[in-house]
Amino acid sequence: MEKLIITVAPTGAWPTKKDTPYVPTTPQEIADEVYKCWKAGASIAHIHVREDDESPSMNFEKFKETVTLIRDRRDCDIILNLTTSGGLTLIDEERIRPFVELKPEMASFDAGTMNWQHRTVFENRPDFLEKLAQAQKDNNVKPELEIFDAGMLYNTLYLKEKGFLEPPLHYQFCLGVPGGIAATVENFMYLKSILPEGATFSAFAIGKMHLTILFMTIITGGHVRVGMEDNVYLAKGVLAKSNVEFVERVKRIAKEFQREIATPAEARKILVLKMEDS
Ligand code: ZN
Fold first, then answer.
1. Crossing angle, helix 210-219 and helix 185-193, to 10 degrees?
2. Which end of the chain has fewer beta carbons closer than 10 Å to its terminal beta carbon, N or C?
3. Which residues have C-beta within 8 Å of that of residue 226, sequence separation ≥ 6?
4. What's the gap in Å between 11 CA and the centre of ligand 1?
5. Which residues face 204 on adjacent strands?
6. Cα atoms found within 13 Å of the Cα of residue 139, Cβ hemisphere only
7. How confident is the model at residue 90 (pLDDT cuts 50, 70, 90)?
8. Mean pLDDT for the chain overall
9. Distance between CA 187 and CA 181 in Å, rounded?
């Protein structure tokens, strides 16, 4: 089995210090947390930023500051994956600008529109998806195809057919978000069964099925995403004191299963990332 790529998503759009005092929300806190998670074994950092009041944001200056702080740690070769969805009421250009100007190796690609948590619409219009895919292609940024429901996976097959997405495709199954597909073993296996040939995938679930999906993806050859974007609890009623604790837990599970952890360099090969000088 391929080595296991650990993505850490330390912040996300929603949890604030009221939910958990341990969530990093300033550029300095996020950069420090990413560095510690890289030391622990994470090879990809999925980055969100916040406004000063911790509200979700696509503020370019916050991305720039955060990315610069991470890159200033010269020994840290973690792969940067910038979100294109730092909130729900977004302007296309604001979603695209951070990856175009900061040139991370990856950026997220939410592959369809959904009724988000029965409250509002998470909008990813067909024309926006084409624009996003084209901008990622033009900038050598690998899309991480976030799949909240089966229809979104079929959207990516359509965009691949039309030439907007180039194989090998990389997926992130985001399970258990109300309005999307539920986090069950059966749904996970179904999504895996409709992946295009040659695709790589990672998965996570929010809520109580988090550990089940974590185990499933490790044993079926997928990769994992952990972090406070998706879960702030390490166990029932126990807040994680750092995102590092989630990374350490993955390492313990993977070790028992005898699956090695990929370094960032190995992850670049597995995901076929385009190197800057190629
Ligand atoms: Zn995200």
1. 40
2. C
3. 6, 7, 8, 9, 204, 214, 243, 246, 247, 249, 250
4. 8
5. 174
6. 21
7. confident
8. 96
9. 7
Quote the ligand 1 centre to 204 CA distance (angstroms). 12
Tell me the HSE value of 52 on the side-chain side, using a 13 A CA sphere.
1
Q: What is the DSSP letter of 4?
A: B
Across 5-28, b (16+ Cβ under 10 Å) vs e yields: bbbbbbbbbbbeeeeeebbbbbbe
Residues near 268 by beta carbon (within 8 Å), at least 6 away in sequence: 79, 105, 275
CA proximity to 202, closest of 145, 273, 152, 247: 145
Give the HSE-up count for residue 145: Cα atoms under 13 Å, Cβ half-sphere: 32
Apex 45 CA angle, 185 and 263, nearest 5: 85
Res. 96: pLDDT tops 90: yes
48 CA to centre of ligand 1 in angstroms: 6
> pLDDT tens, 150-171?
999 999 999 999 999 999 999 9
pLDDT tens digits, residue range 39-49? 999 999 999 99
Residues in the chain: 278
3-state helix, strand, coil in the chain (%, to 5): 40, 20, 40
Find residue 86's DSSP bridge partners. Answer: none
This prediction's pTM: 0.97
Distances in Å between the alpha carbon of 266 and those of 44, 212, 249, 269? 11, 26, 20, 5
What is the whole-number distance in angstroms between the Cα of residue 275 and the centre of ligand 1? 23
